[in-house]
Amino acid sequence: MGRLAIVVLIGAAVIWGALHFNLFASSVSATWSYDYTQTPPCSDAHPTDCIDHFELKDITHQQKMRLIQSANNPTAAAGKVDGIAAKFKYGPPFGEITFSVVAVERLKNGELVGSNPYAARAAANIRPGAKASLIF
Prior knowledge:
single chain; mainly beta; Immunoglobulin-like; 5-stranded antiparallel sheet; 3-stranded mixed sheet; 8 strands; elongated
């Protein structure tokens, strides 16, 4: 009985470690466009009323939206910019996941406000160890 308990504990530790360190995670690449005409990117010359950064989120469950990572504005962004991109590891959970890219604006008072997370979204079937591409 003692050996079985040790085997179970080792197995549980291996599974926990694999999940905790994203060993089964998918490699996801995301690409989107943004028009900076109305709201330019933040800079030393334009520190407010500007786009500070983007956030990639899992919005599959409305009550539990989850930030995956932030992405900086492209260098020297002006007007409509195509091909803004980010790469990240995702999973678990696996299955049909809805992702969103959110533009985060810095207001005059310094507050950061995100755009509607449902405006730019894409769904993908995320499988362990697979590659996925998202185009928003």
